[in-house]
UniProtKB/TrEMBL annotation:
Top-level lineage group: Eukaryota
Keyword Glycoprotein: yes
SUPFAM superfamilies per UniProt: alpha/beta-Hydrolases (SSF53474)
UniProt GO MF annotations: serine-type carboxypeptidase activity
Species of provenance: Halteria grandinella
InterPro entries: AB_hydrolase_fold, Peptidase_S10
Signal peptide: 1-16
Keyword terms of this UniProt record: Carboxypeptidase, Glycoprotein, Hydrolase, Protease, Signal
Entry keyword Transmembrane: no
GO biological process, any: proteolysis
PANTHER family: RETINOID-INDUCIBLE SERINE CARBOXYPEPTIDASE (PTHR11802:SF3), SERINE PROTEASE FAMILY S10 SERINE CARBOXYPEPTIDASE (PTHR11802)
Family: Belongs to the peptidase S10 family.
Protein name, UniProt field: Serine carboxypeptidase
Length: 463
């Protein structure tokens, strides 16, 4: 009897840590096809807490990669990713009922969704002061989470680890990756060597890189002229006078030079009157923020996802008492926000002038990590032209030329070019900022090829 008892307690040791986070089921939704966890971790030795959801692979959890997924904002919850295309269940149009998502990455990957920064969604901040964040404290918090998670789930330490994100999430991912990389450098040189994290690569979608070129920057007018929103003459005038545009959110106190003001005002007038900056080819679409108040808010995801499932009513579902209970959300955590974005976290975010390009350059230099940057080419917020200018500034060597690729429908899907053998820019034609939520089957195919280590994540159209 005593021996038997001993065995049982030893057996349960390996997975004892977070048993209480297991999600048995989601009320009124299809049964879960793999093990889900939902819970909280305090981060960076403070009373601030991340809410995470970890969805084990439907394939082979013990060997499939782990992919972290980040939505952008800053301030948009990664529950959007979990429930609108990346996770195994997604919303069917205009209803609170989920359907099984055949395009989920979860068929061959363990998925990690962290509501980031703290204060977003069901993540928790004890004081208002904690809604102020910047890239560096977010990096610290995410790394703190990562260390605690793998301490509780050591069986996952050897799985390949990928970090993925859309838009601003494309900044969180390399920042966290840089922290893991630095940790690994130290771990590898310790005696005895410490366990390293098996970081393999990054999947970035319409991500921010360098603020000189991205997100309302000096190069933005080129794109708006190319899309016939600005007349050519206005662009020429802008160039002739040597005007620049900088984002005042990032470059505090920046103001245009006097003679450029009329030009910049004219540009603002031309694009502020009905152009959807997230997708220059689509009509803006007024969307509901919740079931009760259908005219509230303007959901940028919905703006370009009229025919695909969406996270529009996520708050209505997640705020149900039985759903909170199923996800183990403590009572002290406030409601999940309408539109999935914490506006206070957004407003209080301290943008840095560095962007994330310099980190991507360092990570590429080591040659240890593969990076794919998927880019919807009709994005007018973070522009393809701008990102290409940033890439040009890195002086990376092209290792595979700008080549068209063929999509699942048999059409030309966009272009791809690889630099330094590790950084692949992959454009997607006629989709915008939320490409990752629109072209679901194609994105799934790209992700699976990428994590399998295919020589290219798309089929090339060779000469
Ligand atoms: C973790 O966070 C909670 C909620 O803020 C707090 O009550 C608790 O004291 C924190 N625990 C630690 C060890 O800091
Ligand atoms: C640390 O060591 C592991 C195992 O040898 C290796 O795969 C990894 O690339 C190393 N990491 C760094 C940053 O050198």
């Amino acid at each position: 009897m005593i021996i038997g008892f001993f065995l049982i307690s030893l057996l349960s040791l390996g997975q004892a840590a977070r048993q209480s986070d297991i999600v048995d089921s989601l009320p009124d939704q299809p049964a879960l096809k793999s093990k889900w966890y939902s819970g909280h971790y305090n981060v960076s030795n403070t009373a601030r807490q991340y809410h995470y959801m970890f969805v084990e692979s439907q394939g082979t959890p013990s060997t499939d990669p782990i992919i972290y997924w980040f939505d952008g904002g800053p301030g948009i919850s990664s529950m959007v990713g979990l429930f609108s295309g990346i996770g195994p269940l997604f919303f069917t149009h205009q209803s609170l009922k989920f359907a099984e998502n055949p395009y989920t990455w979860n068929l061959h990957a363990n998925l990690m969704f962290i509501e980031n920064p703290v204060g977003v969604g069901f993540s928790y901040v004890p004081t208002d002061k904690d809604t102020f964040n910047n890239d560096w404290n977010v990096q610290e918090d995410l790394f703190s989470f990562t260390q605690q998670f793998f301490a509780d789930f050591p069986e996952y330490l050897s799985n390949p680890l990928y970090l993925a994100g859309n838009s601003y999430g494309g900044i969180y991912a390399p920042f966290l990756g840089y922290a893991i990389h630095q940790y690994n450098l130290i771990a590898n040189f310790s005696t005895p060597p410490k366990q390293h994290y098996n970081l393999k690569g990054f999947i970035i979608a319409n991500g921010g890189t360098d603020w000189k070129y991205d997100f309302l920057s000096e190069t933005t007018p080129y794109t708006y002229a190319a899309f016939n929103i600005f007349p050519e003459s206005l662009l020429q005038e802008y160039l002739r006078l040597g005007c620049t545009i900088k984002n005042p959110l990032i470059f505090k106190g920046w103001e245009p030079v006097e003679e450029c003001i009329p030009i910049i005002n004219r540009m603002a007038y031309l694009h502020n009157n009905g152009v959807d900056i997230y997708d220059l080819l689509r009509m803006p679409y007024k969307a509901a923020g919740s079931m009760e108040n259908k005219d509230q808010g303007f959901n940028t995801y919905q703006a370009t996802t009229q025919t695909t499932p969406n996270a529009l009513y996520l708050a209505d579902y997640l705020n149900r008492k039985d759903v909170r209970e199923a996800l183990h959300i403590p009572d002290y955590v406030p409601d999940y926000p309408v539109n999935s974005q914490n506006i206070q976290v957004l407003r209080n975010f301290q943008w840095h002038v560095e962007g994330s390009g310099f980190i991507q350059e360092i990570l590429a230099k080591y040659g240890l990590y593969k990076i794919v940057h998927i880019f919807g080419d009709t994005d007018g917020q973070t522009t393809l032209f701008g990102v290409r200018q940033w890439i040009k500034s890195t002086q990376w060597k092209t290792t595979s030329e700008w080549t068209p690729w063929i999509n699942l429908a048999g059409n030309m899907g966009g272009y791809t070019q690889t630099y330094e053998n590790v950084y692949t820019l992959l454009t997607m034609r006629a989709v915008g900022h939320s490409a990752v939520y629109i072209a679901l089957p194609q994105i799934q195919d790209i992700v699976f090829k990428f994590i399998r280590g295919a020589s290219s994540p798309v089929d090339l159209i060779e000469i």
